[in-house]
Amino acid sequence: MNAIESLKHFIPELVLLGGAFAALTLDFFVKQKKLVGEFCLLVLVLALCLAKIPAKPMSLFFGMFELDTFTYFFRCIALTATGITLLLAMGYTPLRNRYEGEFYGMFLFMAFALITVAAANNLLMIFLGVEFVSLLSYLLVGFLKNDPKSKEAAIKYLLFGSVCSAIMLYGMSLLFGATGSLELKVIGDALFTASLKPLAATAVLFFFVGLGFKISMAPFHMWAPDVYEGAPTPVTAFLTVAPKALGFAVLTRVLDLAFWHFQGVWSPVLVILSILTMTIGNITAVSQTNIKRFLAYSSIAQAGYILMGLAVFSVLGRDAVLIYLLAYLFSNLGAFAVVTFVGEQTGSDSLDAYTGLASRSPAAAALLMVFLLSLAGIPPLAGFLGKYYVFAAAIKAHFITLAIVGTINSVIAAYYYFRIIRIMYLAPATAPALGAPSRTLTLALWAMLAGVLALGMFPSFFITRILG
Amino acid sequence: MIAIPLQHILIFSLLLFAIGLYGALVRRNIIGILISIELMVNASNINLIAFSKYTSLSPETGQIFALFVIALAATAAAVGLAIVLALYRIRKTVQADEVHLLKW
Q1: B103, part of any domain
Q2: Which of A88, A121, A190, A377 could form a disulfide with A179 if both were Cys (CB 3.0 to 4.6 A apart)?
Q3: Which residues contact B54 (CB under 8 A, 6 or more apart)?
Q4: Confidence band for B69, pLDDT divided at 50, 70 and 90
Q5: Residues A389/A323, Cβ–Cβ less than 8 Å
Q6: What percentage of chain B has pLDDT greater than the value 70?
Q7: Tens digits of per-residue pLDDT, B43-57?
Q8: In chain B, positions 37-96, which contact chain A (CB-CB < 8 Å)?
Q9: Measured on CA atoms in the order A272, A412, A326, A339, is the torsion positive or negative?
């Protein structure tokens, strides 16, 4: 489809881009920076309303932008995650300075970048999209101007990220040389006909480095705890969910279109990496004393579970990835919403701030408990559905070892999630009671609670919509 | 004019990539690490251009890719140096091993 025809299917993205520039301009003229945030939220809602499920897959802009149900799903994930993050950010005090407006504007660019990544089916677009997301993430992580931790997190993220994407780029250049094309489909066909097994294996490994960094897959997870601890809490919430989800989207597309012929080569590698990721994440999470760092390790472990679905790579496995990502979006953003609230009220992210939370702020404690139980995969919450699908996919494809290791890991995970719940409910309160959350934060909390409960209790509604 | 064989260019780019990776892993100065990363990116650029000249079905795609990569490398350098500068203002250091507030 040529550029002019494509534009009418590209309206949500155009709204986002226009909105982002408008927000930056608006930032010059308004004193009340919260207005910019509200404007950005409005743009996101508008984009979400304008996005329609495509009836059949379309290749927009001469095949540079693939619009299908897969893209649509990740478009919704990206817009929801960005919207909730904006809600969290609007109640976040450390941001209250003259740069606040730019912060909101950058999130609209981020939403646009994430959608481009989801729709990329061309090496050039994948590289551009992934770099776009990365550059914005570096800036957002280092946004707190006078906070040394935030700056340190940004520099670590920048160095790790640039090395990993440079390695991925080298893999792409080799792939281009071997197949003579940048289109994933053409690459897949060329790799099928020619006997280029060693080269395909090398290229796959290079892709795993670049995208494994984005999804915090071991052994490329080192940056995650530091960055998640140092970044402003709303940004942490965003980074644990959206770029990770989109990393999985690209990985699925690349493996599906370009390397499907070599499943025998990369599937065992992914199985090992998946086991490594969840084990490292879970074991290290047990001894954490900072809630952000704790959730960072838990999110590494969650990436391990999602990788299970990808390692299996059956139709069921891919569906499992999508469902797990949706459940993870609700649970993790919800947990971080509570962390933002408690951090705001007590000025601390250490676990000590949570002792006796049940008597100091019953609603916050109850909500955090629901989100943690969902992350642990307890029915009838959203996380259970995701775990169920992932394990079902592994067992159905006879990846029994993977399923057993996953189960053992779930038990370890349940232990440390319950540890937080024990601190909140059984330890006596030592600090004063907390105040009421801001209105935007309340909205975010209830929206995520609704998501967790709805996905857990009425799964069929979501499953039929996601899987078509 | 004698054309340089493809193999030579590939070996050159591999060497450049290895030097960049080595530098990124062992350097202590953050600016040095950023420069090493530029070397890695440029090694890929050489690959892209060489392949588009010798083997590609449509040579222009590789060249366009290389142009985009150059632009992105410039953007990444701008963002990277801005963050390094902000770090220096607060911590008065650009040595990677002296930046260790965040630890497990």
Answers
A1: no
A2: A190
A3: B6
A4: very high
A5: yes
A6: 97
A7: 999 999 999 988 877
A8: 37, 40-41, 43-45, 47-48, 50-52, 55-58, 61-62, 64-65, 68-69, 72, 75-76, 79-80, 83-84, 86-87, 90-91, 96
A9: negative
Contact A151 B20 (CB under 8 A): no
Q: Is residue B98 part of a domain?
A: no
Residue A220 phi/psi, 5° resolution? Answer: -105, 30
Helix axes A100-119, A69-90, angle to 10 degrees: 170
Minimal C-alpha gap between A454 and chain B (Å): 36
Determine, yes or no, domain membership for B100.
no
Phi, psi of A398 (to 5 degrees): 65, 35
pLDDT confidence of residue A406? 94
How far apart, in whole angstroms, are the C-alpha atoms of residue A105 and residue A27?
A: 9
Domain with B45 in it: 6-92
Overall pTM surpassing 0.80 (yes/no): yes
- Asked whether residue B20 is assigned to any structural domain, the reply reads yes
CATH number at residue B57: 1.10.287.3510
Q: Chain B partners of A120 at a C-beta cutoff of 8 Å?
A: none
- ipTM comes to 0.96
Cα separation, A297 vs A282, in Å, equals: 7
Q: Count how many domains chain B has.
A: 1
pLDDT tens per residue across span A401-453: 999 999 999 999 999 999 999 999 998 888 888 888 889 999 999 999 999 99
Cross-chain Cβ contact A177/B20 below 8 Å: no
Res. B1: pLDDT tops 80: no
In 3D space, the residue among A282, A297, A292, A293 whose CA is nearest the CA of residue A411 turns out to be A282
3-state SS assignment for residue A31: coil
